[in-house]
Amino acid sequence: MTAAKSNRDEAPVLEIRDLAVAYKVRGGEIEAVQDVSFEIHRGESYGIVGESGCGKSTVAWSIVNFLGANGYVKRGTIRFMGQDLVNKSGEELRKLRGDQIAMVYQDPMQALNPSIRLGDQMKEVLTVHRGMSEAAAHDRCVEMLERVYMPDPRNIMRRYPHQISGGQQQRVVIAMALLNNPALLIMDEPTTALDVTVEAAVLDLIAELRRDFDTAIMYITHNLGVVARVCSRVGVMYAGEMVERASVNEIFADPQHPYTQGLIRCVPKLGTNKQSSVLYPIPGRVPPPNNRPVGCIYAPRCDYARERCQEERPQLRQLAGGSWARCHFAEEIDATQWVPPEEIAVPTVSHHGNGAEPILQVEGLQKYYRVVGNALRDVLGLGKKRVVKAVENATFSLAKGRTLGVVGESGCGKSTLARTIIGLESSTGGQAEFMGFDITGGLSERNLRLIQEMQMVFQNPDSTMNPSYTVGQQIARPMERFGTVPKREIRGEVIKLLKAMRLSEDYYDRLPRQLSGGEKQRVGIARALASRPDLVLCDEPVSALDVSVQAAILNLLLEVQESFGTTLIFIAHDLSVVRFFSDDVAVMYLGQIMEIGPAEAIYGPPYHPYTEALLSAVPIPDPAARQKQIRLEGTVPSAMNPPSGCRFHTRCPRRHLLPDGGKICAAEIPPWRETGDGHRIFCHLPLDVLAEFEPVIEQVETQRSVPKESTSAD
Q: DSSP letters along 315-368, please?
């Protein structure tokens, strides 16, 4: 704390004052960012948060002049280590970029050349900026790869980008950014595409970089949990403006701007569920830069807007508590007294499916993929047969009206399990029955009635929507195909579905390109419901959405389930969302279910060591919460050659608790441990040992931005 204070007394590493960034377009220009001011000091991590389209990345790009041919800084100053960056020439900026200022992108492949070995790309940073010899640069690169916990760094230096995992690619990019010990590190959503376990390791690394290198970090994200973990101060952006600045503790404990309060109300907190809490999405959407309202830009979505807000633009000003807010009435607003407006649909949630008969029963389900090599022997079928064991011995049942959440790292088999159940893949072995029908075969082996009763919502609606057909035509197609509605009534039924999705009638004739990401996902849900199915499988339906849109989609799915008694399988990597949304949870690792049971049982001891590690890795949107740090070492083994015995034993941090030190884990398949109420754990450790694990997360009571009526219900 003392060091942080002393750093704040020094001149800031980055100082931005009254920044406005504009883009030249046909007929004039558009101001994407206006009047943004903040500063970052040495050893500080500054978070920039907000919805998509609010200008976060534009601010970052303006620092390094990556605004494109039609973008430029219209007003304001950007000072780095006392130097004015706005007036520097392209050559002067090139000398700073990659040396004193480094940037890490969301997609590491944007920064890596696929045709050049990783070692050569890394060494170039040192040979160009520092004039190092090849040998010295090589040693420095290996040393930095070790610093970011890259396994076998000398071998990684010889590989191409496509030969390593996404998490390893991101570590290479971070290592490359740190080679010259930059004074400023800009990170633009660097962990969004990563697994929760890899994300935790990267966030730990960022915290170490702040401490060990005294680097100033600008961290851009829409994930409030990540902000709570790695940032010391936060700037909240909306529609190109900075609307609030404060310390991370102040932002979460006592947010001052109505927009910040709204963002926090959108996020499910680990430990809450759909019966005890409600997510409140922010009505409306971020206005485009060319159509911002007069006065306060947030006024059309603000629950506290008055006549002054419509006419007069507020200034960013410091409040009595030290926070800065762009609001006329910040001092008068009490977030704890907030009451949801009528236009926010709050779903009613009842305990569906309790005691109901199973609608889906899966027993020992397997899905293997044969891998064919490129050698002539493989093409002729003479080579050794190799298979990827994507799903192995999956066993569970799901009652009508309940939601099963499925979680696990990438490659664990979550999506393959869903695709096998719905028939996009035929199973390799085992049994699966839906409403008494055998569903182990592919779609070609199923009758029309069975296909009608099972539908799917995909992660990326763009990949499943035909850009040439209108929204109405695409929702109507299942009704026509399955004959669920007479032809003359189809348009009326489509409009009813659109309204149920909170979309107006005029969306019927819109094309997909005219919709936002959240609207496309609503259309995807409407299309899945058009055949009136009994089972809907949702594969990461909210992972790419802003927190407000995510809250709206989750509420929508809850309404659908309440109205139609729909059974859901919900696949996600965000354990907070899964805990909030699901009745039951299955935890998968390398193709196998490691733990399954009621959601409330999964999130507290006794739990599987893998579940414990996942819970310790999830970013919690509460800087006051205490979280145990358990990090899995090594990478997930190959599904072509999974470990013997327990597949998790190569990474298990708890196997030493067994009397033989865990030798049995490598030799024998674990037994299922039954705790009661359908909670089962696939582990050699006895239940009494698993029950002795301390809870991963300890919540600390803080003042929260919650509506008045929900406080008494919690």
A: PPEE-TTS-EE--TTGGG--GGG----TTS-------TTTTPPEEEEEEEEEEE
Cβ burial of 680 (10 Å; 0-12, 13-18, 19+) is buried
Mean pLDDT computed over 655-660: 93
- Asked if 64 and 270 count as a contact pair (C-beta separation under 8 A), the reply is no
Which candidate, 129, 126, 130, places its Cα nearest to that of 143? Answer: 126
Q: How far apart are CA 343 and CA 280, in angstroms?
A: 11
pLDDT at 172 over 70: yes
DSSP 642: P
In this structure, the chain runs to a length of 714
Residue type, 286: V
pLDDT at 471: 95
Letter string b/e over residues 305-323, b meaning 16 or more CB atoms within 10 A of that residue's CB: beeebeeebbebeeeeeeb
SS3 state at 306: coil
Nearest alpha-carbon partner for 360 in 333, 395, 399: 399
Residue 389 contacts residue 368 (beta carbons within 8 Å): yes
Under 8 Å between Cβ of 500 and 526: yes
pTM of the model: 0.87
Residue 409: predicted pLDDT: 86
Collapsing DSSP to helix, strand or coil, 425 comes out as: coil
Phi and psi angles of residue 582, each rounded to the nearest 5 degrees, phi first: -100, 150
Per-residue tokens: 19: 């920044």
Helix, strand or coil, per DSSP, at residue 241: strand
Residue 687 burial class via C-beta count within 10 angstroms: exposed 0-12, middle 13-18, buried 19 and up: middle
Q: What is the pLDDT of residues 3-14, one digit of tens each?
A: 445 566 678 999
The partner residues of 413 in beta bridges, in order of sequence, read none
How far apart (Å, rounded) are the C-alpha atoms in residues 594 and 647? 9
Cα–Cα distance for residue pair 417/426, rounded to 1 Å: 10
Stretch 651-670: mean pLDDT: 93
Name 9's Cβ contacts closer than 8 Å, sequence gap at least 6.
none
What integer is the mean pLDDT of 106-111?
80
Name the nearest CA neighbour of 512 among 504, 522, 501, 499.
522
CA atoms within 13 A on the CB side of 354: 4
pLDDT in tens, 118-171: 999 999 989 988 889 999 999 999 998 988 878 788 999 999 998 887 778 888
How far is Cα 505 from Cα 470, in angstroms, rounded to an integer? 13
CA distances to 154, 250, 572, 623 from 271, rounded to whole Å, are 43, 22, 16, 15
> Which pLDDT score is estimated for 373?
64
